[in-house]
Amino acid sequence: MKCFVIRRRRLHAGPSFMSSEMLEGRTLLSAVTLNSYDANNDIGIAGVSNTVWSRYSPGAYQPIADGTQSNAGSAAGIRINTSVSGDGSTAWQTRYSWSVSGSGLSGSGAFSGGGGTSYHDFAVTTPGALGQYKLNLSFSFFNANGNTIAPTQSGSHTFYVTWSNPVGFTPNTTYFAKATQFAGNGGRNTPSGDNVATDLAKGIHDRNPGWVYQDVFRSADDMIMGRYKNCNCATMAYLFESLGKTLGLTAAAENGVFGSAGGFFITKPGLVAFDGDNGNAHQPGKGTDRWVFGMHRFGKYNGKWYDPTFGQVYTSLRQVVEWNTDKSISYAVDGPVTLRHLANVWNWGDWEYTVKGSTPTPTPPTQPTSPAQSPFGGGAKTI
Q: What is the mean pLDDT of residues 144-158?
């Protein structure tokens, strides 16, 4: 997949100017000026200029994003296009160097010019592992005799490495930061799409930034942008979709799994939510170890279901369900188990299940035409 190439934009350099600075006790005449530099072959970021640095706003070092799937390890990863002006009085040489912090990648080179404004570009190799880095750039200026003729110019840029070009929209820096934080894989180079989807689902769960699992729906944008701290599994599914698309995956939010008998279902044990909650159902006199749901929602990618709520990946929705209930008041379950709804305790209720015999083979879940009646009142429950 080819990353989107942003159209090259070159700022008009304006008139050349002369200035002087002290370096090692000597007054230097600035016969050459770095006007600006752009990033090309990179991925667009909403609200961020393609000109990543300009002398007209010298304190603004814009972030850069790049897709690792098509460019990792390639000398054509991204290109830095520079605009340099000379005063016409002397030939000059610009020596540049670059490095990507934490990746071991670096490079250097030089280009020459004379009077007027010249444009030159050079390649920066893209890290292969998803994550957030710093791109460090430095430019030094010399005359034909190798003497410094202008102060060294250097700066650092936040650099996001994604899997590929975002799908369907242009993310902002917060989306790139969250997506690479959650899916950062500790150095795995050129991961597959399945690798990225797994890392993302597990990362949302394991690196939860203080979110609380409660039965309230928030939009993915609300959570990414930090407007709320509490949400349910539907929100988690849309988070997987939005951040997956930020990274370049054709991810989706799956409608979910319902109890096959048109009622509720009891999960298999050991599912711990992203906030550490381990269930809303228990055997008599014991601690919670399972969940009772009317419906549970997932992310989906490439034929697999990804569950950031519990940090799991499934090849079949059957892997989630242990037993199914029916619609009766007694909440009878398929197999030698009975279920009682004890209380509407915030947030997920309090359920008691009794195992009468050995665990049966679970019935595959289906999706009925209408959701199950909520055990907590208020109609259908999306959890």
A: 88
